[in-house]
Amino acid sequence: MADHDQTSAIRRKAGAGRPPPEIAPASTTGALRAALVRAAEDVAALEITPTQIVEDRVILSSVADDLPDHALFALVEGPESQFGLFVVDPGLLAALIEMLTTGRVVPSPAIPREPTRTDAIMCADFLDGVLERFETEIAQAQLPIATAATGFRFALQLVDYRAVQLALEDIPYRRFSASLDLGRGAKSGALSLLLPYDPPRPKPTLPSDQEGQAAENVAEAILQTKADLKAVLHRVHMTLDDVSGLEPGMMLTLPRENLGAVALEDLDGACVVLCRLGQAQGQRALRIGQSDPADRVAGAGPRALDNRAAPRTEADPAPLPRPDNSSDLPPNVDMTEPSEMTGLSDMAQLSDLSELGDLPDLPDLPDLPAADLNPVH
């Protein structure tokens, strides 16, 4: 009888008693290795073999001495306005451009030159592909770095290291430095990736009651904001010579219907609403919303008239002569004395505006002399 304590030959052949095979744990450098290989193959059909990938912790001020000459600096932007950096050396840049343009890697060293904006645009898909696949790899492996290395994408090219210093904060960064074999030995290159070492800080959230109070405070502040409006009774187009000849006592003619279509305009000159001109509590007032702003486009509002100003004397208070083509214009209104406007009595007793009802009293204003009134805008 065989001893049951001894392992049978069949079980020994099956591997009984052997230690389990060692499987290397997932790491960030392994994730980046896989991301580089897949991104290069998918984007440019370029065969990349990472020969070495090193991860370390650096600050921006200590990176300058390790940067290669004529490198492409690509800024990457992540969540919460965080920024990182790709550094692509001339060898990798040349291999990518050659594969994208000619379909093969030339077996010769890269020619030293300054990278251009076109180079950055052509490499953008590869860089984004590396970041996307790197995110996928570290997420599947459930690595702690996932919260700090997710959401970054290519943003723009930086012309030199000085621009890098202006764009990035001098904070701790996680740096990945990869040495690469390109096109089965046709070229060699290098790639560095800098990402903020610490994950982005979440924005503080307020309790629901505090959020409501904050919204009320914002609404109250907005309602207290000053809004400047201007009432335009009429616009008159005049030459510079006529404007320079204006003197106190001159008279301008206005269409009568404009008294019922005064435009209330915002700072951009857009008509907010049309109003009627009258008075309330002894003060000049506007009744809002009596006309449709579309009437102003149709011609019911103020119109540009080519009227000329002329001095008026006590003996001859007649208004200026109208142009020959103004026979269809309404009768003129003398705006020199606003308290004696002809035509206000015909507009539903606008002199009283008794129908305004419960309008609040306007503040007392001193009476303006007729020479200071300017009914024309």
Write up what this structure looks like.
The protein is an alpha+beta fold. 24% of the residues lie in helices and 22% in strands. The chain contains eight helices and twelve strands. A hairpin with a 4-residue loop joins strand 5 (172-182) and strand 6. Helix 2 (28-44) crosses helix 4. The longest helix has 24 residues, at 117-140. The protein starts with 8 loop residues before the first helix and ends in a 43-residue tail after the last strand.
How would you characterize the largest beta sheet? 6 strands, antiparallel
Number of strands: 12
Number of helices: 8
Straight-line N-to-C gap: 121 Å
Helicity, as a percent range: 10-25%
Residue runs with pLDDT of under 50 for 5 or more positions: 295-360, 368-377
Q: Report the principal-axis shape.
A: elongated
- Give me the side-by-side strand order of the main sheet: 1-5-6-3-2-4
The share of residues in extended strands comes to 15-25%
Determine the structural class based on helices, strands and strand pairing: alpha+beta
Give the helices and strands as they follow along the chain.
Answer: HHEEEHHEHEEHEHEEEEHE
Mean pLDDT: 76
Q: State Rg.
A: 40 Å
